[in-house]
């Protein structure tokens, strides 16, 4: 049985979640409009803020060149296995799907609080 206090907490949590989701959707829409304007060469600024576009970058090391420079042992040491790519190879028949499934180790990352609507 749920206590009244927990019911109140759940109601407040759901209200905040719904409010935040609405605000995030509005923020995303406004951001898309501002990005489009900035890409079109426009500038926008208020007394407090100036909007500008910055490009994020990631650094990758080409496998073949890394291997040439540092050798097989170092390459194996830093290599990671991409689960989605491995699954695609198993689906294509390049890897044995049963062996891959038996090799898999599931590690918990975090617990999430999930709300589902209750039909009255």
UniProtKB/TrEMBL annotation:
Q: Report keywords, A-Z.
A: Coiled coil
Name residues in a coiled coil: 6-33
Superkingdom in the source lineage: Bacteria
Query: What is the designated name of this protein?
Result: Siphovirus Gp157 family protein
Q: Give the species this sequence originates from.
A: Deinococcus sedimenti
């Amino acid at each position: 049985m749920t206590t009244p206090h927990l019911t109140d907490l759940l109601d407040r949590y759901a209200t905040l979640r719904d409010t935040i989701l609405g605000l995030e959707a509005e923020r995303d829409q406004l951001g898309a409009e501002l990005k489009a304007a900035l890409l079109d060469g426009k500038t926008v600024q208020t007394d407090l803020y100036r909007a500008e576009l910055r490009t994020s970058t990631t650094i990758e090391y080409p496998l073949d060149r890394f291997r040439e420079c540092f050798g097989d042992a170092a390459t194996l040491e830093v290599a990671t296995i991409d689960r989605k790519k491995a699954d695609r190879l198993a689906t294509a028949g390049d890897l044995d799907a049963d062996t891959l499934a038996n090799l898999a180790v599931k590690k918990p990352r975090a617990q999430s609080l999930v709300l589902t609507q209750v039909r009255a």
